[in-house]
Amino acid sequence: MSAVRKYILLLVLTGMGSLSHAQGQNDSVFDARRLTFVRAVSGEPRLFIFLSPECPLCKNYTGLLNQLNTQYSGRLQIAGIIPGKTYSRGEVDSFTRKYKITYPLYIDLSLDLSHYLQASVTPQAILLDKDSRLVYKGAIDNWYKALGKPGARVTEHYLQDAIEATLHHRQPLIKRTNTAGCQINDF
User: Fold this and answer.
1) pLDDT at 131
2) Average model confidence (pLDDT) across the chain
3) What pLDDT band is residue 187 in, cutting at 50, 70 and 90?
4) 16 or 149: which carries more pLDDT confidence?
5) 3-class secondary structure, 7
6) What is the C-alpha to C-alpha distance for residues 40 and 129, in angstroms, rounded to an integer?
7) What is the CA radius of gyration of the chain?
8) Strand runs labelled E in 2-143
C-alpha cells in the first residue's frame, strides 16, 4: 500500500471521532462538513459499498461492482468499506487480490462511518450525491431475496438505476430497499 493511501486511510479512520453517533431516522441529508474526508472530487457522487471478505454475497457481487467502477470511472467515486476489527489489512489485501477489486477498500476499525451512514449488512450500497445527500440505500439488485436464497435472475438493478438517475440530476424511482446479507457486528 502506498504511503499516500495509508495516510488517506488513517484520515478516514481516525478523523471521524466526532461521528460516532448515528443519524436519526431522517437520514436523507448527511452533514457535508462531517464527510469532508470523502468529499467528492470535482463534484462527483460517492458510493459506499459495505463488504465483508467472508460474506458469500459480497464475493458474488465483486465482479458487478468492478464493472460499475469501470463504467462510471471519472463520474462516481466508489469506496469499499470493511466494517470493524474482524479483518486485518492482510486479509483485506488478500480479498482484493483474489477478487481483483478495482476500487479502494478501507477498514472502518471504529465503525464510525458504518454507524454514521447506518450501514447494517454486507453487502449494502449507500449512494450520496455531490452534496452528501442520500440518494439510495440498500441492495445492489434483487438477485438475493434473503441470505442463501438467490432468485432465478436479476430483474431490478436498484443501484445502477440510482447511479444513472443521480448522474442525470434526477431522483431515483426507488430510494431504499431491504438488504439481504451478513449482519455488521459492533466489533
Assistant:
1) 82
2) 79
3) low
4) 149
5) helix
6) 9
7) 15
8) 46-50, 77-83, 105-108, 121-122, 124-128, 134-138
CA 158 to chain centre: 14
38 DSSP 8-state letter = G
Residues 6+ apart with CB under 8 A from 92: 53, 82, 105, 107
Largest Cα span, the chain: 44
Tell how far CA 132 is from the center of its chain. Answer: 14
The class of domain 40-183 in CATH terms is alpha beta
With cut-offs at 50, 70 and 90, classify the pLDDT of residue 43: confident
Give the torsion sign (CA, 150, 151, 152, 157): negative
Distance (Å, rounded) from C-alpha 140 to C-alpha 150? Answer: 13
Which residues, in sequence order, are CB contacts of 160 under 8 Å at separation 6+?
Answer: 68, 141
Task: Out of 35-39, 42-46, 137-141, 183-187, give the one with best mean pLDDT.
Answer: 137-141
Confidence of residue 21 (pLDDT cuts 50, 70, 90): very low
Q: List b or e across 25-34, with b for residues whose CB sees 16 or more CB atoms inside 10 angstroms.
A: eeeeebeeee
Cis peptide before 45 (omega within 30 of 0): no
Task: Name beta bridge partners: 78.
Answer: 47
Domain ranges of the chain: 40-183
Cα–Cα distance, 159 to 72 (Å, whole number): 12
Q: Which amino acid is at 176?
A: R
